[in-house]
Amino acid sequence: MTPSPTSEPTPGVVELLVENHREFLRFVERRVGNRAIAEEILQEAFVRNLARTDEIQESALGWFYRVLRNATVDYQRRQAVANRRLDAFAAELDAHGDSGQELARVACACVLSLAETLKPEYADALRRVEVDQVAVKDYAAESGISASNAGVRIFRARKALREQLARSCGTCAEHGCLDCSCDSAQGAGTHGGWE
Prior knowledge:
By secondary structure, the protein is mainly alpha-helical. Helix content is 71%, strand content 0%. The protein is built from eleven helices and no strands.
């Protein structure tokens, strides 16, 4: 029997589930290794399944542990897919390693000096990968992060730099103009202090 969307949770079952909240949280946390993620999974399981308590044909605790196990497996599958995508992105960045030489050759001085105004980890990522031509996997190793995280950091650093450049140089940056004549470029050296 499929419950109607307006079915109410069974009060005794809800009380039993709430009483066992800490045990449920420990159960999920042991499987995902992160308390905050475990809390999210548990909260989502409560929200999605409390209206289904009238369907329980077994022990309410056993039923909810099964719900949590399935929710944890679903989370781990989603994470595995996300990690594969990040790994592919990092590999793509490595495959196009020569783009840093082109950037260093054609970028105006203001781009390089504006990079120094970004978060330190973004400025460092851009400096090492784009200017110093360090491979993403090598940058990841020297920074103590995974290649996937390094790829994401470089992606976010590039995005932050584009936004900073648009604020500083206006339409010149929006249209891809490489002959920058903004005030920042006039007073800066070739690599804005990165050499």
